[in-house]
Specification:
7 helices; about 80% helix; single chain; globular
Length: about 210
């Protein structure tokens, strides 16, 4: 059983890595994009479920963060709107609760002076809670707080950004497992830091393309 869970987790992670890379490289439209996207999306459930069974609490919470980004990213593409349905509202509230758990875990670690992982948890708690609060304000309360709020391509940029962030979450897990940067803090934060810079550049390119001031 343990071996099956381990292999399923590894296989799901590899599928996410490969399909995510294809989505970045290939044109972002058409049947092929949607098919690869579905494989990528459902593989996230395999990663999160098996990761939670394997018992790493921080990895599980981090996996939920990546899954939240994938779910909301897909929902933007399906709705082509920022207005939340009942299902979307439930996902947002679950995300807010999950982000609270990450903050509480960060506080717990800080209390016991486990500073490296307290900092890591706080960073991801901030990213997660900031996203869910923005979703609450924009999609549930109807507030226009984004630079692109009200623009016809708002859904597209949100879809793109969230799918990229979910991929970064997967690559961060790979960095941690493989110890790429030889230090826990760097393994957890470097991929996200690099990714945020790249996402910002990409968004600015599309904002210029769609004349978003």
């Amino acid at each position: 059983m343990d071996q099956f869970v381990h292999y399923t987790h590894a296989a799901s992670g590899i599928i996410i890595a490969l399909t995510g890379l294809l989505q970045i490289i290939l044109p972002k439209h058409g049947p092929k994009h949607r098919l690869i996207g579905k494989i990528y999306f459902f593989s996230w459930f395999g990663v999160v479920i098996t990761g939670s069974i394997m018992g790493a609490f921080l990895i599980t919470l981090f996996g939920i963060f990546g899954l939240y980004m994938a779910i909301t990213g897909v929902r933007y593409a399906q709705r082509k709107s920022i207005v939340a349905t009942i299902f979307d509202k439930i996902i947002i509230y679950i995300g807010m609760l999950s982000s609270l758990f990450i903050w509480l875990f960060a506080a717990y670690l800080a209390y016991y002076e486990i500073w490296v992982f307290a900092i890591i948890s706080a960073v991801f708690g901030y990213l997660f809670s900031n996203t869910t609060i923005e979703d609450l304000r924009c999609s549930i309360l109807g507030q226009e707080i984004r630079k692109i709020s009200g623009h016809k391509m708002e859904w597209y940029l949100e879809h793109l950004t969230r799918m990229y962030i979910s991929y970064l979450a997967a690559m961060t897990a790979f960095s941690v497992i493989q110890n790429l940067f030889k230090h826990p803090l760097a393994n957890w934060l470097a991929p996200i830091g690099i990714g945020i810079v790249l996402i910002t550049i990409t968004r600015k390119k599309y904002e210029k393309q769609y004349n978003i001031e």
